[in-house]
Amino acid sequence: MTKGFDCSTPLTVSTAAAFVKDGYLFVARYLVPSGFKALTKSEADVISKAGLQIVSVFETTANRALGGRSAGLADGATAVQVAKQVGQPEGTCIYFAVDFDVSSAQMATVIAYIKAASEATPAFTTGVYGSYSVMEAVKQAAACSRYWQTYAWSGGKKSSFIQIYQYLNDVIEHGIGIDHDESYGNEGWWNTISPPDPEPSYPLSPEDANAIIPFLSAGYEATISLAARDEFHRLANELRKASGQTEQ
């Protein structure tokens, strides 16, 4: 479990350092195009240099998800533009907020919003912030791949599959209002200092490896020595590993 918080107030060098000193490891900030709460590239750098990870959340208005598919497509496109501006690496997550008590009659529209936001952000993983009922419904609809639940409107229930849990709101620490969160892994967070691990590169192509392996197989079949057979098998697997293939 990892200790974190979310806030609408931009962090400074001093406040970011103070939160790190208190043991916080991540902060959720708003990936919106403008306004006081908007994350900027300079703030992302400050947060990263302090040693905090960043969770990106897109929220313009609390009930924006009631705009359905068209709103999701528009917000997803905007979120991608802002993510690039602030230095968020591709492959990390953008959470879209459903910041109100969703009724059963509204849930289909909310799901359509999250599905559309996911469609519009193909280079990023997509998450949803919301109540227990939102988590369960969006998960069942496979509308996104990351889940950040708030205790608000959740009736004491907590989904079993979530990455982040917001368990306390409206706390003042280091002079700013924050909410308390905890995370459990695979959050999709990021910083501007340590980009995600690159895709591994292999010194040998699968085609070349598979062209060589039959010669080793022939040697394997031609000998009755168990030691020699083990060596031919080992060499074949070394070729597979060097070309990014699964050992056999």
- Binned, the helix content reads 25-40%
| Total number of beta strands | 8
- What form results from the Cα inertia axes? elongated
Topology as a string of helices (H) and strands (E): EHEHEHEHEHEEEHH
Low-confidence sequence ranges: none
* Structural class assignment: alpha/beta
Strand order, main sheet: write it out.
1-2-3-4-5-6-7-8
Beta-strand residue percentage? 15-25%
Oligomer: single chain
**What kind of sheet is the major sheet?**
8 strands, mixed, barrel
- Distance between the ends: 36 Å
Give the C-alpha Rg: 23 Å
Number of distinct helices: 7
Mean pLDDT across every amino acid position: 94
Key structural traits:
248 residues, alpha/beta, 8-stranded mixed beta barrel, 8 strands, 38% helix, 20% strand
